[in-house]
Amino acid sequence: MAVDMGPNRKKLLLIGVDQAIPYLLNKFLDNYLLPNINKLLENGVYTEAFPCSPCDTPTNWTTIATGARTARSLWNCLVKSDFLIQLIKID
């Protein structure tokens, strides 16, 4: 179902960097060692993201994209959990 947001709708570009170390990223930004990222941040925002257990890339990106934690989305590692359970089910 499409939702009409009206003429004042805004667009969002989310850029995520896996395994970025916030201390180092801030140090590089402060010293303008990442000029393109500095330019993006001039009119944008920056924040740290905290992982959702279990801490792996697919699980966390699924949480970011859907807003649902692993227990709700059932995505874990690279496969959907109920599919994995069927694969390893022992009769």
Strand order of the largest sheet: 1-2
Element order: H for helix, E for strand:
HHHHEEH
Binned strand content: under 5%
- Ends apart, CA distance between termini: 41 Å
Mean pLDDT: 75
| Low-pLDDT regions | 87-91
Helix content: 40-55%
Helix- and strand-based class? mainly alpha
* Annotation, overall tally of beta strands: 2
Shape: flat
For the biggest sheet, the summary is: 2 strands, antiparallel
Q: Provide the gyration radius in Å.
A: 18 Å
How many structural domains can be distinguished in the coordinates?
A: 2
Number of helices: 5
Describe this structure in words.
The chain has 91 residues and is mainly alpha-helical. It folds into two domains: 20-48, no CATH class; 50-91, no CATH class. 43% of the residues lie in helices and 4% in strands. It has a two-stranded antiparallel ribbon with strand order 1-2. A hairpin with a 2-residue loop joins strand 1 (75-76) and strand 2. Residues 87-91 have low confidence and may be disordered.
